[in-house]
Inverse folding.
């Protein structure tokens, strides 16, 4: 009777080993797996490399003028006689404007200005917006005053604010960057504030407060890491908007100086003769559209990967 009820012995070798836990792909690999990140990042990387390698890509001084070579069509090879006395054979890949300046050279060097403005504005807006959002979201007494101030800044049209600031302080690169960055700060601040309001009620934050953890440690160690992913995503959209706004300001003649090679200045110079020589506006416009589109596509890819609400593929 005892033998019939005994539990049969199972050899140790027959026991299946537990399956190892599935490995989650690293964040970097998950980001690169998104086609939007690869496409947008690839185009941006190409533009950055072209702008940095501009001196070795068949360009000349973007500010050099040759009245005798004005309004040449794309692909024309001719003699360039600058006002400085230099004379040489040159292939005008994208033609020239009415003053004889090489559009190819001005477009590549203009990419440096546009990308610099975009990155600088994104950094300024994210840094100051993050600080304002952290203060407003965590300290209840400051929240109302800070948010009302941000609402007031948002009520001012960004273009009008930028035009006013440039008119007061001149069309310097720093002035243009600040003029574009200030209207973007409230948007970043509101985003960070919403994250802080959510994370502040989490049990681990309440436990840190109960243990009398210094406020700056709570903000840096517990709250700020939760806002990094939304900040990275928002930074891409701020960068794209800044590049576009800078081009608009230059096109209207209230941005960077007209002699500086920027995409907006190139298009502004060529708009008067657009019907006869559309290449003066077409080529810098294509570069501008590709850059803004690439940054937006990159931002969409980062959002799909970093934001749990959109990340449906998991690890």
């Amino acid at each position: 009777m005892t033998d019939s009820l005994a539990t049969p012995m199972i050899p140790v070798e027959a026991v299946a080993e537990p399956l190892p836990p599935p490995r989650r792909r690293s964040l970097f690999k998950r980001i690169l797996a998104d086609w939007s990140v690869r496409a947008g990042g690839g185009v941006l990387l190409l533009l950055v490399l072209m702008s940095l390698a501009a001196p070795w890509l068949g360009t000349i001084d973007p500010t050099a003028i040759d009245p005798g070579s004005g309004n040449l069509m794309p692909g024309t090879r001719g003699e360039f006689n600058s006002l400085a006395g230099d004379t040489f054979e040159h292939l005008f890949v994208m033609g020239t404007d009415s003053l004889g300046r090489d559009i190819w050279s001005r477009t590549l060097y203009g990419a440096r200005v546009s990308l610099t403005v975009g990155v600088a504005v994104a950094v300024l807006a994210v840094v100051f917006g993050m600080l304002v959002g952290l203060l407003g979201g965590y300290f209840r007494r400051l929240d109302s005053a800070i948010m009302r101030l941000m609402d007031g800044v948002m009520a001012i049209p960004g273009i009008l604010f930028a035009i006013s600031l440039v008119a007061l302080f001149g069309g310097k690169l720093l002035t243009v960057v600040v003029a574009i960055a200030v209207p973007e700060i409230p948007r970043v601040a509101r985003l960070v504030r919403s994250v802080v309001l959510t994370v502040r009620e989490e049990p681990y934050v309440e436990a840190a407060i109960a243990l009398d953890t210094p406020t700056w440690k709570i903000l840096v160690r517990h709250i700020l890491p939760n806002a990094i992913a939304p900040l990275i995503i928002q930074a891409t959209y701020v960068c794209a908007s800044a590049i576009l706004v800078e081009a608009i300001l230059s096109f209207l003649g209230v941005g960077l100086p007209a002699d500086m090679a920027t995409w907006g200045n190139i298009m502004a110079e060529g708009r008067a003769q657009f019907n006869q020589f559309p290449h003066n506006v077409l080529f810098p416009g294509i570069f501008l559209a590709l850059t803004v589109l690439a940054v937006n596509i990159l931002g969409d890819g980062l959002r799909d990967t970093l934001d749990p609400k959109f990340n449906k593929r998991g690890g």
Notes: The chain is about 65% helix and 5% strand. The chain has a mean pLDDT of 85.
